Amino acid sequence: MTEREPIAVVGLDCRFPGARNAQEYWSLLMDGRDGTDRVPEQRWDADRYYAAASAAPQSAREARPRGRSNSVRGGFIADPDAFDPGFFGIAPREATAMDPQQRLLLQCSWRAIEDAALAPQDLAGTETGVFVGVMANEWAYLQLADYDRITARYGSGNGYFMGANRVSYHLDLKGPSLAVDTACSSSLVAVHLAVNALRAKECDHALAAGTNLIMTPVINIFYAQAGLSAPDGRCKPFSASADGIGRAEGVAVLVLRRLSDALADRQPVYAVLKETGINQDGRSNGITAPNRWAQQRLIESVWRRAGVTADDIRFVEAHGTGTLLGDFIEAQALGELTSGRGSGSVALGSVKSNFGHAEGAAGIAGLIKAVLALHHRTVPPSRFADDENPKLDLSGRRLSLLRSPLKLPSGTVHAAVSSFGMGGSNAHAVLGSAPHAVHHSRHAAPGVFTLSARTPERLRANLLAQADALSRRPGSQLAQLCWTSNRVKSRLPHRAAVAAGDLPTLVAGLRKAAERAEGTARVDGGRRGVPSVAFAFTGQGAQHPRMTASWYRSCPAYARHLDEIDTLLAPHTGVSVRDQVLDADAEVQGARLAQPALFAVEYAMAATLTEAGIRPSYVIGHSIGEFAAACAAGALDVADAARLVARRGALMEKLPKDGGMLSVSLGATEVEPLLVGRARLGVAAVNGRRSTVIAGDLDELAAVEKELAERKVSVRRLTVSHAFHSPLMRPVVEEFRRECADVSDRRPALPVFSTVYGRELSGEETMDAAYWARQITEPVRFAEAAGALLATGVTHVVEIGPRAVLTPLLSTLRAEGDHAVSLHSAHPGEHAPGHRPQELFGELWCAGLTPDWDLLYDAADRVPRRLPPYLFDESFRSWRSGAAPGHPEPSTPSVPLGADTAAVPSGADRGESCPPAPAGAPPDPLAVLTRRLVCRVGGHDPQHVHDHDRLHEDLGFDSIRVMELKTRIEDALPQLGSLPIEDLLASLRTVADLVAYLRGQLPHGSATPLPMTMEGTR
Q1: Annotated catalytic, 819?
Q2: Lowest-confidence segment of 113-127, 843-857, 957-971 by average pLDDT
Q3: Which end of the chain is more exposed for a tag (fewer CB within 10 A), N or C?
């Protein structure tokens, strides 16, 4: 039989009793601990429904007291009511109506996808499948018993189908999405369906999940009445003391892919699903009784299709509930296959011994145990191995319970997992260990670790979690871990980036970033328009030995671009400018090489950023920087630019070195009188309102310097070889004009802010031969050009050059209210520590831009590595007790004061809270009323609702909530009449949009009431 496509388990997350995540789950198993506990008071009063075994008559099981459980113990997960609704754009009122299983599945799915080294947002819009095994829906029993309380929220908050559909909806997954109920085998059946969907190419990724929450004593009572319940609430599989089932709960999600796809993407693989299968008992000796022959046929079929025999199977994770009948039949069925094993025995176990029977999540609990065992190459011990039931004859069937962990051998190892449903639906799976993969990283390759979260508080918690985890990772994985963080952890609004060349530095940097997390600004995400970027290219004087060496060493894309431009320059310079720069040759300070060297590094930087997706909307260049700016704008061919800058530098180098440059703290108009009668001096640059550079003859310059010093004016002599942009440059102008004569005359593709004209090039203006000739002697009108650039509303200005020269100038030129972010591409000094390309990419990302991180890393470093998944905010709580079935008390969500997500605050509910108006401004009655209605419908804390909040993405307004909001608006503002829903939907992007729409609908001159309470707005 041809082996079918193996399916890789690439990611997982889980919560089970005694374990909040997969790491804790593995520790629980390896330590052989008991995860059971007394029924929490939050669930129900266990004593009220408890009847001890001694209280029941011994004569007949049927005579037990009706409506009574024989146990007060079980396996319960911690904080099942905790949720982060804001993270998923769910309104608090909707979250309170949701089955907690849906909430847990949402968070668990997100974390499992991240564990697969994938960004959940990258799966949005893809045909990713969601398959959820679920057996119980006790939340609906509690929520829907009071018919007077039922609203539209409760319909979407309940139902098995919504467990899967919620995940598909909120993560925008377009593949198959379904819930499966086959009782205890539900989640392993869901895995089987996911495997088949992947093989049929109905999806490329699949989330296979299981969930179970115990919210009422109903099933406990049923088990007790049916004689299936263990009095101590513990499952004791294959033990002589086995006396029934102990109930448990849990939630788990696996991320599955076709193995070939996972390997092609170098994705980490936990284990491989070789084959799965399902069948039914048919008519046996009772609908709830297991059928040995059906189990045996299923196992034989799956093993045959997987191409394995009993000799290949190292261990079996059994269904193993701890009922005498169930254990006996399962041992018989399995023993028919294993008893013929050539040598040794098959290890047998059941995770139910650790915390009980998780019912709808039982199959996936056992599957994850097997997956982790193959991943760690160790099988955990069985808790009741010392008390093996001799009647099962396990040794005769070549089966054994492990008293201690079993170390698995190298090479391919196989395991099997069974899960059987109470109604007779059986599931079985055969797994194999993951293929061995070796991914080598560059030695000591640097990287930038990125992390994002929904709030500053969550950012801090996640930074500390990553720091703790990374402190235990091999140092050789630094670049790979950083690259993974860039892919997986970089889409949320509060951000931190830490560049480092080794893991200890990274860990320390993450902890420092955590200390500053509270001050991080929220990345707008385009809510106020698409970010725009300008490149500002530095002029001569910024050059220094080994400039941009860190870029060349640690950014492969930059090295490639610098090599390319060096090749174009070499025929005109006679030497390798790249080598001169990187070797710190002193010649690079002279005009002949300084100008082509500056052009080369600036061109390579700009090309790297553009390739990384940081494309400029505008460019500006200071002096020689205009050549690289012209290339970036498409106004000058790079080959022509290379020839021109080389020729320009060579011509200037031949001029007498009898000139200098002086920076003075005066405006240009104040400088001009100083130049009267001094023909060999001129204004070389106007860099700011009180920052002007004079250039020319050294003697005349000295005289001006002395005069200004007497007037107490701050002056600074610049270290230059010539008096650039002065009358002393005139001898080379005509020759350079001839050099430029054959340069193609073309319009820039981007707006260019000319520092020759002090404004944007307009109309048919080009950077032609006349322009470049004029540029040699004309003053650099940077202040005027930069002012015009900033007036465009550009959001980010990136200085391109080897030193941050223009960045401080730009800060002095900003008009009031201008919030453009300035970033620079290089360190302030040649010996500055750190890794500037990585730092810059991190700064760009923290500023709201999205660079292509791949350009920072060699192919060998672009390997996914698992990182700890997201830590959600758990301040929101909502639960309904099962203490009084049929008479549920009101749901009582609660949020600590100051939490970033909130359920319905009592003040908002009564109309006592009012969103504050801006300082000094009277409250806008319509805006106040609108925000109140939004908060009332969604259940939001008014203190956390702002004009720019998006109603759909941030506040969770779906069609149901929009209809409710429409009704409340019409009730509160009857003068509007009936609002057309289509118009309302079109105007609902943000709270401010809604206010503007309503203002436009009000009759002219209509007064808007400012209600002091919520009366009339319910």
Answers
A1: no
A2: 957-971
A3: N
